[in-house]
Amino acid sequence: MSQVATLHSDYVGLALGSLKRLPPFSPVLNRLLASFANEEVSFGKMAELIEKDTVLTGHVLSLVNSAAYARAVAIVSVRHAVSLLGVLKLRNLVLGLSISRLWANVQTPPGWSHARFNLHSITAATLADLLAQKAPVAFPEGAFIAGLLHDFGKLLIAIALPREYGQIQQLRRSGAAEIECEMEVLGITHAELSQLALRAWNVPPAIQDAVRRHHDFRPTGSNLDLAAMIGCADAYLNATGMGMTASTPSEPETAIALLEPLEINDSLPAILDLFATEVEAIRSFF
Questions:
Q1: I want to staple 231 with a disulfide (CB 3.0 to 4.6 A). Which of 128, 217, 237, 255 is the partner?
Q2: Please, are residues 199 and 208 in contact by the beta-carbon 8 Å criterion?
Q3: What does the alpha-carbon distance between residue 98 and residue 212 come to, in Å, rounded to a whole number?
Q4: Model pLDDT, residue 7
């Protein structure tokens, strides 16, 4: 193995090794992640899992009683929330809020923003999930978790390789694409690191693949996959100023055009209206 290849291999080892330095998932979060491998998740089982964690229960009740999910009657139990929102929707909300907060205090280098990372991750998950409900895509229930963790490799780089993270950011200021900068410095991209982390957590292969290819998908209308959902959602958010890097939002028409490869144009106005409502609720948690 060449010296350069050895160095790149060392980078991968250090990045994945930083998984051990992150706060561990609670037993409930582990069970929720594992539930993506099951074809069906029962109403009662989902409520039972969430109720075992008082913090998660508080998050759920706070969110479902927010203005975005305004109901005529206050929701006072997890089982009531499951009955109103549905099992999969509630699972996604719990995972998004809990995972985002879990890593909020991890030490990272200058230039990293936990707030932007968390907001981008959960909004990408939310939009990808809404798109997958309308687009002809296999395994649509995996869109949320794939969107939530699509950039997780960036966090691993920031934690384990702060000097190299700084080098990547410096190269980006020259106008080069982010994944090209990562390849030059590390020999691997954040998307590939994200996929390796998900494999370590035994997340289903379809979700791993979507995360790995979210910068390299080929949407073809009736033959879409999860990578297209994540890639288009990611591009839209970056164009609207909700990316990892602060930027001036593009014109709405320019941003919406980034979703057109999914060929669900008639559904986009309703999807984006619902997305805006959900983002309003999400922002109050960060």
A1: 217
A2: yes
A3: 23
A4: 54
